[in-house]
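In response to the reviewer comment on reproducibility (Comment 2.3), we provide here a single inverse folding case reported in full, input and output, so that an independent group could reproduce the run without further information from us. The structure tokens appear first.
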């Protein structure tokens, strides 16, 4: 009888664990233990729906500080509406709410309240914290707003302070309707007429109200409106109140903000929370993993959460339910869809390819929105936040467009896309290095960007060549001979910066000579956020051509090996001192493999092109296990708008998008024994890894839809058609598997392509 009871309780425990909602695995605290000098993600506890127009987050940092939340902080000073995709670009359209008890304190430093992480709950659909003073704050999101609930201690005063952040703002208080309306216009890349209008509704009557500004911190009790720098408001409720707060915002008008509030926030707090939970569970169940540890599931779903935040929707719905938007490029209102808050230098690599699998309808709308943005801005966006910032290098909008087209997402005019790209490739725009092309004349006349010249000249040459391949690929696929021939030569320009003597990509002067001195460990100068060891591999479209330059497959694989076996030596170069990317490479302990930044993230998979796929299988599993977790130290560097998370999601499923702009994904080694991807078309693609565990990381054999499969890649249509990839895993490499030339993934220079 005693044994039966124990068995029964054990069964109940197992069933309860199996039925745990997937959203409970995802922690929004992942990567929050970050600071200026060392990033473990540079994230904040984002409370949001997938690709929501805005999100909400607790705020530990001062107004205007890019590190809005740091895990090491002891106090919180606000709960912000946020759009921030990187602390380096700061935030925009921000305002915050904050509860306090006792006396009214508006100064952001003085009002900050102490908390502990033990009193904090942080999931995508729900954030909760109880301060040491016993005030509890809860938040759940909608796409363009949020529902907050503040519970004040019994018998104590109950204040809520609205902070207008760091630029101009305006507020109007209506005690009759229990409402505050207003606007803020903070941000870096915004038109002159930009405003984020908000409507805030409270379910409790106001006992006292007033305005203030965060420059003078002077309060004006009974004043119902104020405009100016940092203008805000405050309200006092009855003692011990529980106050529900509905918030919605609009870039179009106050009336639209109210319409959105009525559309999205119809019920009480519990119903908003339930709907948000259902939204994330629906998405997470579309990528259902089985097997693995609880920790691996937490890491996977935490990463899947961040992979589905950016780009933000920038459109709203009118009275007829039709989408329209305020353009951050021309300051006008247009019909249709728009998306913002993304740096394509990061996200073309994995985040957008993941979207083509999970969200083809959104991806189709996005591609047309790219062309609309180009018409409104005069240039393709490359770093939109919400307008064009032009950060980093390359012209990767063409990668997004080509990748979508090659995967059957054909919602745009390819000739218009190619014409717009040609304008990008043969001009320099005013907004930053990736707005048009720095060094474009050199690139076309010399075949490379010369150095001294633009910062990152070698990196620019390599990425321009890849982007030109994408334009070539789109032109060829759509029968556009003019653009096909135009870019057919330029896509091989990577060869012009390869030095056969040193075996590295190197900077060249305008006269054709190599720039000296040269140290492959030196960061900066001709290399963007890296060194020659990191940038050697950035020939996504022609790995076989790179293999040929290096001297064949054996030498190529040996060079790949060297990245991991070398010391983590850093020559700070033109940076003059250690920057966070350098420190993150050293902390990771993987030699010169700097997974915390994007240029080298595809490198592991290149072993598949050199007929040593077992090394890719080993290293990809090692990296996932060593530098990712669901905790505050969860990333090896900046998370970067879903890219570093998407790398993990795809890699954990067993494949990766080495060359967006083709229909192939290169196979690695999956984390889980089974993963089921449910597509928008209702079909399912299953990756099953038999006998999989942390030791059995090597693929022994494979079948695709029941037939033996030796290739080291799968195609997009393999996935979208539905099917089953079965991998037999083992503890030792299967060195004889997949040795045919046709088993290797796509390269321009490979036989048959």
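Designed residues, in position order:
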């Amino acid at each position: 009888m005693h044994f039966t009871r124990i068995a029964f309780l054990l069964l109940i425990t197992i069933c309860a664990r199996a039925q745990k909602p997937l959203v409970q695995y995802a922690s929004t605290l992942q990567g929050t233990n970050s600071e200026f000098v060392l990033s473990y993600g540079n994230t904040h506890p984002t409370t949001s729906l997938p690709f929501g127009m805005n999100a909400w987050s607790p705020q530990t940092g001062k107004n205007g500080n890019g590190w809005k939340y740091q895990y090491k902080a002891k106090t919180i000073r606000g709960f912000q509406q946020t759009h921030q995709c990187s602390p380096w670009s700061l935030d925009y359209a921000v305002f915050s709410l904050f509860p306090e008890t006792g006396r009214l304190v508006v100064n952001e430093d003085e009002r900050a309240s102490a908390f502990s992480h033990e009193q904090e709950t942080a999931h995508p659909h729900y954030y909760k914290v109880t301060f040491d003073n016993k005030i509890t704050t809860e938040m759940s999101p909608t796409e363009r707003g949020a529902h907050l609930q503040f519970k004040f201690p019994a018998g104590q005063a109950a204040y809520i302070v609205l902070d207008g952040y760091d630029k101009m703002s305006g507020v109007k208080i209506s005690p009759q309707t229990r409402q505050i309306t207003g606007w803020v216009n903070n941000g870096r890349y915004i038109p002159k007429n930009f405003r984020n209008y908000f409507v805030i509704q409270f379910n409790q009557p106001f006992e006292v109200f007033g305005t203030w500004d965060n420059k003078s911190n002077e309060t004006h009790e009974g004043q119902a409106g104020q405009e100016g720098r940092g203008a805000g408001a405050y309200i006092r409720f009855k003692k011990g109140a529980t106050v529900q707060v509905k918030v919605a915002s609009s870039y179009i008008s106050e009336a639209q903000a109210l319409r959105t509030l009525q559309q999205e926030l119809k019920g009480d707090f519990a119903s908003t929370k339930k709907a948000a939970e259902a939204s994330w569970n629906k998405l997470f169940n579309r990528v259902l993993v089985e097997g693995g540890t609880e920790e691996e599931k937490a890491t996977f779903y935490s990463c899947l959460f961040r992979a589905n935040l950016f780009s933000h929707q920038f459109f709203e719905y009118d009275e007829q339910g039709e989408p329209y938007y305020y353009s951050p490029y021309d300051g006008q209102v247009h019909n249709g869809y728009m998306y913002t808050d993304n740096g394509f230098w990061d996200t073309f690599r994995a985040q957008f390819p993941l979207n083509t699998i999970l969200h083809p309808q959104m991806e189709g709308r996005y591609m047309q929105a790219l062309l609309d943005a180009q018409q409104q801005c005069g240039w393709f966006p490359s770093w939109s936040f919400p307008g064009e910032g032009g950060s980093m290098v390359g012209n990767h909008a063409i990668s997004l467009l080509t990748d979508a087209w090659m995967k059957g997402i054909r919602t745009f005019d390819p000739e218009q896309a190619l014409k717009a790209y040609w304008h990008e490739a043969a001009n320099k725009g005013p907004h930053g290095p990736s707005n048009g092309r720095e060094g474009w004349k050199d690139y076309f006349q010399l075949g490379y960007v010369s150095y001294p010249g633009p910062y990152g000249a070698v990196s620019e040459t390599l990425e321009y060549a890849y982007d030109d391949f994408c334009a070539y690929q789109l032109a060829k696929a759509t029968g556009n001979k003019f653009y096909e021939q135009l870019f057919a030569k330029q896509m091989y320009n990577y060869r012009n910066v390869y030095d056969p003597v040193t075996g590295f990509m190197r900077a060249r002067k305008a006269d054709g000579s190599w720039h000296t001195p040269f140290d492959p460990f030196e960061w900066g100068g001709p290399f963007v956020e890296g060194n020659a060891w990191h940038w050697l591999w950035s020939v996504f479209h022609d790995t076989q051509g790179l293999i040929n330059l290096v001297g064949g497959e054996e030498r190529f694989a040996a060079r790949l090996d060297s990245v991991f076996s070398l010391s983590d030596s850093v020559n700070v170069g033109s940076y003059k001192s250690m920057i966070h990317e350098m420190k993150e490479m050293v902390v990771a302990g993987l030699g010169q493999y700097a997974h915390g930044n994007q240029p080298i993230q595809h490198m592991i998979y290149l072993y598949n092109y050199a007929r040593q796929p077992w090394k890719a299988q080993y290293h990809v599993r090692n990296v996932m296990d060593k530098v990712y977790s669901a905790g505050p130290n969860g990333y090896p560097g900046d998370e970067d708008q879903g890219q570093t998370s998407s790398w993990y999601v795809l890699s954990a499923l067993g494949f990766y998008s080495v060359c967006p702009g083709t229909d192939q994904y290169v196979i690695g080694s999956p984390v889980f024994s089974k993963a089921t991807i449910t597509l928008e078309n209702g079909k399912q693609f299953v990756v099953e890894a038999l006998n999989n565990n942390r030791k059995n990381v090597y693929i022994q054999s494979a079948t695709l839809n029941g037939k033996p499969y030796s290739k080291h890649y799968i195609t997009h249509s393999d996935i979208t058609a539905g099917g089953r990839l079965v991998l037999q895993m083992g503890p030792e490499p299967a060195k004889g598997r997949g040795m045919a030339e046709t088993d290797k993934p796509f390269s321009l220079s490979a036989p048959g392509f």
